[in-house]
Amino acid sequence: MKRYILGRILMMIPVLLGVILITFTMMYLSPGEPARFVLGDMATEEDIAIFNEENNLNDPFFIQFVKYVGKAITGDLGISYTTKQPVLDEVLARFPTTFKLTVLSIIFSVIIGVTVGIISAVKQYGFIDNIMRVIAMLGVSMPTFWEGLMLIILFSVVLGILPSSGITSWKHWILPAITLSTQPLAACMRMTRSSMLEEIRQDYVRTARSKGQKEFLVVMIHAFRNAILPIITVVGVNFARMMGGAAVVEIVFSVPGLGKLIVDAISVKNAPVVQGGILFVAFAMSFINLFTDIIYALVDPRVRSQYIRPRNKKTVAKEV
Amino acid sequence: MFIMRSENVVMTNQMTIAKRSQSKEIFIRFLRNKTAVFGLLIALVLVFAALFPQILTSYDPIEQNLMDTYLSPSAEHPFGTDEFGRDVFARVVYGCRVSLKIGLFSVSIACIVGVILGSIAGYYGNIVDNILMRAVDIIMAIPNTMLGISIMAALGQSVNNLIIALSIGTIPAFARLVRVSILSVKEQEYVEAAIATGAGDLRIIIKYILPNCMAPIIVQFTMGIATSIMNATGLSFLGLGVPAPTPEWGAMASSARAYIRDYWWMVTFPGFAIMATAFAFNLFGDGLRDALDPKLKN
Asked: Which residues face A210 on adjacent strands?
């Protein structure tokens, strides 16, 4: 298991290097001089030359890239052009907000999605199932930003019971979390339903029923435990995706998170913040994927056994 | 002699029926799925709106009319008017063309590139496979929204750049899908037979392998249009998509956001249009999946 985790972490290195290359190239190619944006219209040619020299902007592309990677490895993502603060500090200051929003949303979507998915599967083609499948499809088809705006109209403008921007109290988290959770909720529900439908028809479920086991226990203990693997994958994938998708929600509800930091930085050509922010999101995403795979291995003995070489029983037990 | 001939006739009849039944059966199975047909119908209406917007509305989507600003929905303006007095219905109808164009083209590009990369990776395996799939991993490590944001920041706002940005984010899905399909088909006997007859790699991939991977590709293509249109509107909402004054649903919702407290119609109707489009293509894709591969049902 340790070997497996170590291997996976090592595999992340080339991927992250590639991510740096992509974001770096994109910001390098983006038109306009950052110096003009940062120093304003009053800046003299001399000021601009000094600025470019300080930020290594006169070096050729490849030299700039290597310098950036060398610094990034030590955690130095550069200095923000606008606030003059280290990018890593800015990113770390914003990250907890985004993380909290994502975690709240994922918890909400898993609880509702799994429950509804199980009910849908148990009563296939029943009333709840039919309604829920249509709602799930609508949920998948609804653009996140628009859903947020509609919720603001309903709950803030018409009903006036929930605030529409900022994060100063617990009430402020409700609308952003619901908005962000819709897509993963629908995905989670659909996956739970199809995975449960597959398990519920298996022989062992019939056996459990025929020996007189209560229906609730048959569904929850026998079928659900076996249906959980694909659900974990979907939740993991969506969790990772939400780290990026949160940007739109943060803009709609003016939540000061990482996504908002990156989008705001683009409009003022604050390249270090954009690069650092996206790199950080990719980093977080890779760790979530790794985490999902580890949980996967912990839950499924078949997957687990692939990574454990049968030596003697004691070490195997220890590693598990 | 006579009997044999009649038998022959029956045989050939059965043969033609058997030959036709594959696509016919898929078609019948699809038609039986009412929600899928419903999705297809909405999609056709949208295509009609994209091709002939002037039939549906007489208003100009771009020309400003400062006498008629902020009118609420009425018989004259079914979706109301916006801050420049433009008819929101007209802008939604003309927006169809932009959104469908973006969806169709970005997924087509992604599909072509993805199929080529996936075929090469799956067919040749080893080092080629490793290199291509690691490249795909890198693109997938950046969340699609972030990738779109950074590409649009580099290229600048325009419909064509948006198509490029979205297609890059969609390539991995196709590449992985095709690669897996090819891996499962590659070992089949008819491929071996084709190799034995001396067919070249390109011929084998195009003529023998790809036709057998078509079902998942078609489904991914249809669903991809829905995702792509939604991502496009999302980027436009962030101000990184289609530039003003082109009527685009995401950009419309974005500029209407400032007036959300007083003029709800400006933001509501473009959103409905996005939702209807994505809903239609998702239903259509779902129905296609059931019809193309009954094994995948449920």
From this structure: none
